[in-house]
Amino acid sequence: MQEFRVSTERRPPFTVIHVCGELDIATEPRLREEVQAALAHPTPRLLFDLTRLDFVDSTGLQIIFDTYVELGRGDRVAVCGLSPRVKKVFDALGLTAEMAVYGTAAEVMASLGTDPW
């Protein structure tokens, strides 16, 4: 397993939040800080890039879902890069049917008609 890391970058129109390692009750405060900073941006749009996420528990999912709800349950939050293990959790909770979920960040941008990275 990888050490937990979270970082952000601006890729208009999104702030991309990269999450790596295990997202659980011990690491969720670090993700919450990054999300709160991103939400301070005028007209925030967030992309959670979970390509390098090995594990997620309910506390980690709660942050992502709360952000989705806070931003109006529309296209202002997207998720990409779900491993089969993480996708299984998203599927079980109905999140893949509720939220915009993509295979890669490039697919997200292409869906918006923006050049892939």
UniProtKB/TrEMBL annotation:
One protein family per Pfam: STAS
InterPro entries per the UniProt record, alphabetical: Anti-sigma_ant, STAS_dom, STAS_dom_sf
An example Gene Ontology molecular-function term: anti-sigma factor antagonist activity
Segments forming a coiled coil: none
Residue ranges of domain STAS in the record: 4-112
Family, per entry: Belongs to the anti-sigma-factor antagonist family.
Name of the protein: Anti-sigma factor antagonist
